[in-house]
Amino acid sequence: MSRLQAADAKTRIAPSDFYRAELPTMPAPRGGGWRDGGLCPFHGDKHPGSFRVHLGTGAFICFACGAKGSDIIAFVQMRDALSFPESLRKIGEEWGLA
Ligand SMILES: [Zn+2]
Hints:
- This protein is of the alpha+beta class.
- The protein is built from four helices and four strands, in the order ααββββαα.
- The protein has helices at residues 6-12, 15-22, 72-79, 84-94; strands spanning 34-36, 51-54, 60-62, 68-69.
- It has a four-stranded antiparallel beta sheet, with helices on one face.
- Strand 3 and strand 4 (68-69) form a beta hairpin.
- The protein is globular, with a radius of gyration of 13 Å.
- The protein binds zinc ion.
- Zinc ion binds at residues 40, 42-43, 45, 51, 62, 64-65, 67.
């Protein structure tokens, strides 16, 4: 049984699917590129519009609180205060990849 690798997680989970599941306030995404991610999960966001996710790469950025990262692993790592391996393991378990 091999451990889930970061490259596997990134190729097997579409960022658009990931963020649709993880961001309940995100408007239905159309197309790729940077999209409105709804309310930012990294600060007490009450006004959608400052949090963006990239549906191609999984990158995210908040123009209000400054949270940013390059992929879905970094997103889980920051949101749940996990190490990189912990984040990867959690994504693997939740998405049935482990
Ligand atoms: Zn924020």
